[in-house]
Amino acid sequence: MDQVALQASSLSKSFGSTRAVNNIDFTMKKGEILGLLGPNGSGKSTTMKMILAILKPDTGTITVEGIDVARDPIGVKRIIGYVPETPQIYEFLTGLEYLDFISDMYGIPTGERRERIGQFLDGLQLRGHENELISGYSQGMKQKVAIISALLHRPRVLVLDEALNGLDPRSAKLVKDLLRSLAGEGVSVLFSTHVLEIAEALCDDVAIMYQGSIVANGTIADLRQKAGLPGSTLEEVFLKITGTGDLGDVVKELSR
Amino acid sequence: MNFRKILAITIALSKSQLRASRTNSAAASFFRRPSIILILDAVAFAVSAGLGYVALVLIGTLAAPGATSGSIQLHTLAVNALREVMVFIPVFVPGMVLVAGLLFELNVSSKFSASDTVNWLPITQAEYVMASSLSIAYNYSTPVAIVIGATLFPSFGLGLGWLWAGMTIASVFTLFTGGALVEILRATMNRVSSMVMKRARRGAIFFRLVLMAIVILIFETVFNPNLLIIVVNGLSGTFSVFALVPIFWGAVAVQAITTDQPLRVLVFSAGTVGFTACLVWIATKVRSRYWSPVAFSVSVTSAEYAPRSSSLLRVGLTTAEAAIVRKDLKGITRRRELNQMLIIPVIFTAIFLFEEFTSSQNGAGSAGQVFFTGLPVFFVASFFSLLISSSSFGQESRSVMVLYSLPVTPGEILRAKAFMALLFSLTATLAILAVFSVIDRSSLAALGENLVVFVSVAVEEVFIGLAFGARFPDFQEKPRPRFMDPIWLLVMTAVGMIAAVATALPALYGDLASTVSGATTPLYLYPAAVLVAAVVSVVSYRFARTSVKSLMAEYGV
After folding, report:
1. Tens digit of pLDDT for each residue in A74-110?
2. Considering the domain boundaries, does residue B321 fall inside one?
């Protein structure tokens, strides 16, 4: 049990008449990178927000590193680093001011924060822009600031919702390598993406969500087996499992 | 100019105004159709026409056979008053639109102007200005519908039918004139803002605040009727002064109907149309020249990063609370839509001084002298405090998501917001009290009394604002940030004003009594004022605490 970083049981969430998450169960081990895949609106972001205690589940429980999210939401937030799907960061602050603000919220000592912020700014090539207002940043630069703010306080669990969106190839490679390295040190990563090649290259396990439910999970080899498509790509497996495989007619119609 | 395009943009802009907040109920979606304004106008017209009919019956009884000479005099007075009001309306309408524009239209976030569809669709500046002016005119049409409705039956019943028709046409048209004025101001403010932020760094923020205050004061001045009359009197003597000022031309045309001068009606109507066309032309030019469709990078400092512990920790705030206060301080000085809030005390001071000066110069008397010290301080301590505290949660906008994901408690958020609001509210209240006490040469005792009362008002209003702001925040940023649900903003203002009047009564009474009869206010009223403020503050704080807890329990944007 002490090897479990995150456990979700019987998790459901509805918005009005729409059932966004439908009675899902999953477990993430310590040091594991778990990929959460699924088409738009399948419930990935809602699941992640429930893990962060940003949304309250209608039913079910979540524990992160043994902490019950419903009982101690602040305790859970302290040990998680989160990158939302669309980072809504304070654009009237400079990049540096924002990271300083985040450091204050996590109580990172001033000496340590100076060193870590400097390292991340250099690594993600934001040096030279740190004193500019975020409102003038490109989408990719904002994404980098959001990623740094999730990593600054050395979280034990990372929840990354489409975290590589908008990053240039060098930064994307750096983040992927960093996630691998952190996982090696015992940090657990829940990672959602639409880019199946990234999932294939990065994730130990994958869970595929469709219409609020987990329709398949396991290693990528397991999924190929379940789909009856040995030797195929993850894209082919994904399309078969989610029943969205045959797009030929749609393409034909659109290109007329 | 493509009129179909103009109509399409006008409808889109009206929709974006009406749909600023997201609610999914069927009733809410009904109220988000542009046609709702037309329905509202029709209802307002019908209701006010009904009330106008009652007024006509009452006026009619004054001149009924066998009426006393006093009643007949009153009847004549009512007819004259109606005539004067109807002539005044075409002057009032653009002023009303301008004030509404200052309050509600100019704070569209600059970051959205950079991505607005109008910047990349094939739309000319002139088409956009026309559409935007039309949508502003349409959105603020209800007060005009009320006036037109209320005057309908009295006008026709008292033989002023032509005057009513003229007033109606002029009022509807000058709504559009007001819209064009707002467009000019919008582009000018955008220029001021971008020019300053581009060229300077830290000092730019303060400089921009000052420049914005100056631009608003210039507009207030240019459209202040008292000043216009003084200037024109000086230039041309007293005869037909209104005829020289374009903003009055609509009123002059309506006035000419009462004196049966068709040529004058024609000339000044044409003049009004020409003046409005001229404003649209200017608005198009300033927009073409000054609108900046591209977001620019602004470096705030070039100093090396040296993190240090905040001095706010010394006043008892935790690290997280101090971080939120510092973030909000930067927001209020850097965000254009919040900047305007900061200059409210300056504008209040200027307007009170200006009105005082121009009305006495213009021979309009100085009734305002009675509350000279109390009233401006009262407005800042109440209205400004309410505004600054109630907006403190909504100003988080969509970035409130950051607070949801961080390990910060609702209590810490509330304490940080309260500290910030109290800081601004008390500073502004004390500053304006000092200014008006010096100008009014208040005695030390009066200053002390005012200090007790207005600090109490400021504190209680901050807590009322926090209570409502936390319970009914509006995190939307498009088409403009509102910070709070508008219906609850009105309720909060009413509650806040009642509490403020109850608390400030000793000071206002003291001002009045000492001016009229030299009497002084009973001393026991001051501890009573403090007690009222303390009770209101404690109740509001408790309400705010529950509200923040429920707000932070689940992300609801």
Report:
1. 999 999 999 998 888 998 899 999 999 999 999 999 8
2. yes
Find the domain containing B61 and state its range: 3-290
Fold of A4-218: Rossmann fold (3.40.50)
Taking CB atoms and an 8 Å limit, are B399 and A77 in contact across chains? Answer: no
Q: How far is CA A3 from CA A64, A234, B234, B317, in A?
A: 11, 28, 88, 38
At A235 the pLDDT is: 81
**Stronger pLDDT, A148 or A86, i.e. the higher one:** A148
User: How much is the pLDDT for A220?
Assistant: 85
The per-residue pLDDT for A133 is 86
Decide if B381 is inside a domain.
yes
> Does residue B381 sit in the same domain as residue B458?
yes
Confidence category of residue A48, pLDDT binned at 50, 70, 90: very high
Q: Give Cα separations from B136 to B75, B276, B345 (angstroms).
A: 38, 14, 26
- Judgement on whether residues B113 and B253 belong to the same structural domain of the protein: yes
The β-bridge relationship of strands A188-192 and A205-210 is unpaired
Q: How far apart are CA A182 and CA A154, in angstroms?
A: 9
- Minimum distance, in Å, between the CA of residue B392 and any CA atom of chain A: 14
Q: Are residues B124 and B265 in the same domain?
A: yes
Could you tell me if B349 and B258 lie in one domain? no
Question: Is the CB of B25 inside 8 Å of chain A's CB atoms?
Answer: no
Crossing angle between the packed helical segments B202-222 and B161-199, to the nearest 10 degrees = 160
Q: Please state, in angstroms and rounded to a whole number, the distance separating the CA atoms of residues B457 and B378.
A: 8
Weakest mean pLDDT among A208-217, B24-33, B73-82: B24-33
CB contacts of A93 in chain B (<8 Å) are: 327, 330
B283 and B382 both lie in a single domain? no
Q: How confident is the model at residue A241 (pLDDT cuts 50, 70, 90)?
A: confident
B477-520 pLDDT tens trace: 766 678 888 888 889 999 999 999 988 887 777 666 666 666 66
CB atoms within 10 A of CB B305: 17
User: How many domains, chain B?
Assistant: 2
> Which residue in B111, B323, B404 is closest to A135 by CB distance?
B111
Asked whether the beta carbons of A66 and A39 are under 8 A apart, the reply is no
Q: Are residues B210 and B72 in the same domain?
A: yes
Greatest alpha-carbon span in chain B: 90
Q: Output DSSP code: residue A93.
A: S
Interface contact A55-B305, CB threshold 8 A: no
Domain boundaries, chain A: 4-218, 224-256
Residue with the two structure tokens 């301590």: B381
Same domain for B350 and B256:
no
Asked if residue B68 and residue B183 are part of one domain, the reply reads yes
CA torsion angle for B500, B506, B510, B511 (degrees, to 10)?
Answer: -10
Burial class (CB in 10 A: 0-12, 13-18, 19+), B421: buried
- The interface predicted TM-score of the complex, written ipTM, equals 0.87
DSSP tally for chain B: helices H, then strands E: 22, 2
Domain membership flag for residue B295: no
Phi, psi (degrees; rounded to nearest 5) at A222 = -60, -45
Which candidate, A210, A202, A212, A256, places its Cα nearest to that of A234? A202
Interface test with A, best of B305, B399, B403, B408 (most A CBs within 10 A): B305
How far apart are alpha carbons B148 and B152 in whole angstroms? 6
Tokens in use for A57? 């589940």
Q: What is the pLDDT of residue B50?
A: 95
